[in-house]
């Protein structure tokens, strides 16, 4: 598919498949810190993906404000610019009081 301009992303397959196979098949590795063992494990996996020439995307699993803040923090710690799905404040969740955190071009601003 890459030859057609379609990029393939691997999400939960990073939990089930050997990483070499994931890196062989995917252009982008989607990392959910809570699923891979926390922030440090997520950053280690991101480094492995980058070393294999893959782009990294951080996201969360529709978590609480604390879980979303954790995913945002990992993306910021990655330091390669924020690239992720649903890292901005989830406006559809009532009672989510994370107004002070916003994802802006290339970083997170308070």
Set out the fold topology.
Layout: E1 9-10, H1 13-16, H2 19-25, E2 28-31, H3 33-36, H4 39-51, E3 55-59, H5 65-78, E4 84-85, E5 102-104, E6 107-109
Helix pairs in contact: 4-5
Distinct helical segment count: 5
Q: Order of SSEs, N→C?
A: EHHEHHEHEEE
Overall geometric form: globular
**Residue runs with pLDDT of under 50 for 5 or more positions:** 90-94
Average residue-wise pLDDT: 78
β-strand percent reads: 15-25%
Q: Structural class given helices, strands, pairing?
A: alpha/beta
Distance between the termini: 39 Å
Helix content: 25-40%
Strand order of the largest sheet: 1-2-3-4
Beta strands, count: 6
- Taking all Cα atoms into account, the compactness measure Rg is 14 Å
Described by strand count, sense and barrel closure, the largest sheet is:
4 strands, parallel
Q: Could you describe the 3D structure shown?
A:
The protein has helices spanning 13-16, 19-25, 33-36, 39-51, 65-78; strands spanning 9-10, 28-31, 55-59, 84-85, 102-104, 107-109. The chain has 110 residues and is of the alpha/beta class. Residues 90-94 have low confidence and may be disordered. It is built from 5 helices and 6 strands, in the order βααβααβαβββ. Helix 4 packs parallel to helix 5 (65-78). The chain is globular. It has a 4-stranded parallel sheet with strand order 1-2-3-4. Helix content is 38%, strand content 17%.
């Amino acid at each position: 598919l890459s030859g057609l301009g379609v990029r393939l992303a691997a999400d939960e397959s990073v939990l089930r498949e050997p990483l070499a196979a994931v890196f062989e098949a995917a252009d982008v590795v989607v990392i959910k810190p809570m699923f891979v063992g926390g922030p440090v494990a997520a950053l280690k996996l991101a480094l492995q993906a980058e070393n294999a020439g893959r782009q990294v995307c951080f996201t969360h699993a529709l978590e609480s404000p604390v879980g979303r803040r954790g995913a945002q923090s990992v993306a910021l710690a990655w330091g390669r610019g924020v690239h992720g799905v649903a890292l901005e404040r989830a406006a559809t969740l009532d009672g989510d009081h994370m107004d002070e955190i916003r994802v802006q071009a290339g970083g997170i601003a308070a």
